[in-house]
Amino acid sequence: MAAAALATALLVAPATATAAVAQPVTPSGPASVSEIDVRMSPPMPDVGVPPAAARPTALADPGYTLNLGPDGVPIRWNPCRTNHYRVNAANGGPGALADVTSALAQLTAVSGLQFVDDGPPTEISQSGYGRTQTPDSAPPLLIAWAAASWRGADGVGRALQIVSGVVVLKQAANLAPGFGPANGATRGRVLLHELGHVAGLNHTGDANQVMYSVVDGRAGTCAAGDQAGLARVGA
User: How confident is the model at residue 159 (pLDDT cuts 50, 70, 90)?
Assistant: First the structure.
């Protein structure tokens, strides 16, 4: 099976006069990206997707969407093992590391997935990150802030299991620290959104969820659909 990476780019709603931003907004452009490294790995428990003659590439339920492998099973981390991550917060601004820690704590509490901090790296993911690694020695999930020189991540691997990934936020996005609610998108809500992708969630059409394709100034807390999706990939 050919190596593949799944990537997303997040649109951030521009700041408004108030923190109440329930109305549709015009995105200002991508402020962050995430990729997951998916590879052929030993069997793990599936989440009960029934076989089908013609399998879709995504599974949608109210409030969340999952990516599916060619066998019709959601692509996700192995919930039976401890996963690893590293954070390069050098360009993230005051409180960036605390926001990452809080976002991961919320994700793990809802999904049950376990992530251990391997300490600060010096790199920001560039093309080829993890390319020489095998599934058993995949690099940790990398979370970082990039300046203008960032060239983009190039995850490698094969479906069906997530073994690594990257989350990169643009330094120039000037996201408000914390989790809001706030006048415009917050760093915490953007981190939680991208970590949702890393966990195996796709965008949803429900604007009330963190995994909606446009992030605004609402509080960075997983809504019911987000929680249902995370529980499914972490079961």
Answer: very low
The rounded distance, in Å, linking the Cα atoms of 119 and 86 is 6
> Which structure tokens are listed for 169?
């936020």
DSSP string, 116-172: EE----S----TTTTTT--GGGPPPEEEEEE-TT---------TTEEEEEEEEEEGG
Separation CA 46–CA 43 (nearest Å): 9
What single DSSP character describes residue 14? P
Task: Give me 113's structure tokens.
Answer: 């997935």
**What tokens does 195 get?**
């970590």
Cβ atoms of residues 217 and 183 within 8 Å = yes
Mean pLDDT, all residues of the chain: 74
Q: Which residues contact 70 (CB under 8 A, 6 or more apart)?
A: 1, 55, 159, 160
Polymer length of the chain:
235
Q: Which two tokens stand for residue 194?
A: 């991208």
CA distance 134 to 15: 43
Percent of the chain scoring above 90 in pLDDT = 36
Mean predicted confidence (pLDDT) in 218-233: 94
| Cβ neighbour number for residue 61 with a 10 Å cutoff | 12
Comparing C-alpha atoms, which of 71, 173, 64 is closest to residue 111? 64
Rounded to an integer, what distance in angstroms lies between the CA atom of residue 210 and that of residue 203?
A: 9
Domains, the chain, in order of start with CATH, read 31-38+62-234 (3.40.390.10)
Listed residue (233, 230, 11, 232) closest to 106, CA to CA? 230
